Amino acid sequence: MSDVNAPPEAASPTSSYAPVFEARVALRDQFRLAARPLLVASVALIGFLVARWLHLRLLGPGIGNDVYLYQRYATAWGGGSIPYVGFQPEYPPGALPFFLVPWLFSGNGADYARAFAVEMAIFDLAAYLLVLLWGRRLRPGSWLPTVAMGACYLAITAALYPVLYTRFDIVPGALVLGALTLAYTPGRLFWSAVLLGLAGAVKLWPLGLGPAWLLLAYRRRGWGHLLTTGVGLAIGLAIPFAPLLPKAGWAVLKFLEYHSDRGIEIGSIWASLALLVNMANISDMYDAWTVHDFGAFHVKGPVAATYARWSMWLLPVGVLLPQVGAFFGQLGRKEDERGEIGIFVTLGAVAGFMVFGKVLSPQFALWLAPLMPLACRSVPMILVAIGIAIGTTIEYPFMAASLEMLAPGHKLAVSLVAARNLLLIILFIVMCRRAGWAGIIKKARAKLRPRPSPPPSTSALTTSAAVAPPSD
């Protein structure tokens, strides 16, 4: 029996410090959880800054006179002229604010090009961070694929250094990737459509992705969601147009005439075909030559005019082909929960613009730059992506004079640009297959394959043997 008069046992020192210790551990874990995103973002930002510092130091800020065209537009608009009335931009209304903002910070001086480059660097950084975000979404189990995708983006854009910060095409590229990110964020498809429409107002090609967004909305929640997504697209497209309509009216669409009147631009697949046929010296009907108009070099000649007409009809086919595959495929279904098929469809449609379009300027490769690291994850496809970027820079500026028949080496230049264009065709075909055409082709082959006739049954063989006449 225990002694009831014994003094109470003294508390253990360890037990008295236990609550304090547990509180410290909990506080440390909370700090680690809170600090991890900040640490990851800091490392990603440092990686971007180091890569771009090396890029600018070793390769330079870029080449071209387009930035001075943007400055003229901004100066005219800032001086009170009405776009499409007082001056005629060759771009949609959504592009004009991106020309005006650097002018507001730099004025008419030589600092405009630097301010414009800073603006493009912001969108470059945004695209890079979105690539990393998609890397974690597609491969959540490891950081290595995410790092590889980010490095691939930095390599592709560094290879496109002549146009990265001297053209504005990284803007629609980053906006489309942002719209795709929202499209696969629960409850954000409407705002994704608004952002896609805004990207279409900056440069028209994102509007060609509209069918994929509408299909995604329908497969998630039916016709009502499809309707609201269509309204979102219209709102985003209307935002830059609406302020100009009262004074400019339908003149805001004059830029469409400019582009419809253009021939086949010298970097396009159609131009490569015309120049290769011209080099073969088949007949005078296939003669081709280069001229400078519409601010760029184009290929002229009888066959070139034919190719320009073909392009107008085939361009919509090329853009819609990956989206038709998605219609019969898994876009928006359970297999597309992380958005992988959406990436294939989007990249395939953008590549379709470039493969079938009659204009393929070097800066158009920036449309692909944010998407290729996410879709091209095997070694052969990574080489295709980097080959497209390097081939584009070989075309402009290194082989531009030879390609334009202004310097020796024309045949070599045509061959190199044709090789780059072949890589674009490969990218387009692979993305079409991944978007859904691989399944369509497999089902079609299964239906066309002749079915073997079933072997005769044992009972039929016994019956035929029983009724067979005896042999002599």
Features of the shown structure:
472 residues, mainly alpha, 21 helices, 3 strands, three-stranded antiparallel β-sheet
Biggest sheet, spatial arrangement of strands = 1-3-2
Largest sheet: 3 strands, antiparallel
Instruction: Describe the oligomeric state of these chains in a short phrase.
Output: single chain
The number of strands is 3
| Helix/strand structural class | mainly alpha
Secondary structure tally, helices = 21
List the secondary-structure elements in sequence, H or E: HHHHHHHHHHHHEHEEHHHHHHHH
Shape: globular
Separation of termini? 115 Å
pLDDT under 50 segments (min length 5)?
A: none
Give a short overview.
With 472 residues, this protein is an all-alpha fold.
Describe this structure in words.
There is one protein chain. The longest helix has 46 residues. The protein has a 3-stranded antiparallel beta sheet with strand order 1-3-2. The chain has 472 residues and is an all-alpha fold. The radius of gyration is 30 Å and the shape is globular. It contains 21 helices and 3 strands. α4 packs parallel to α7, α13 crosses α20 and α18 runs antiparallel to α20. It starts with 12 loop residues before the first helix and ends in a 5-residue tail after the last helix.
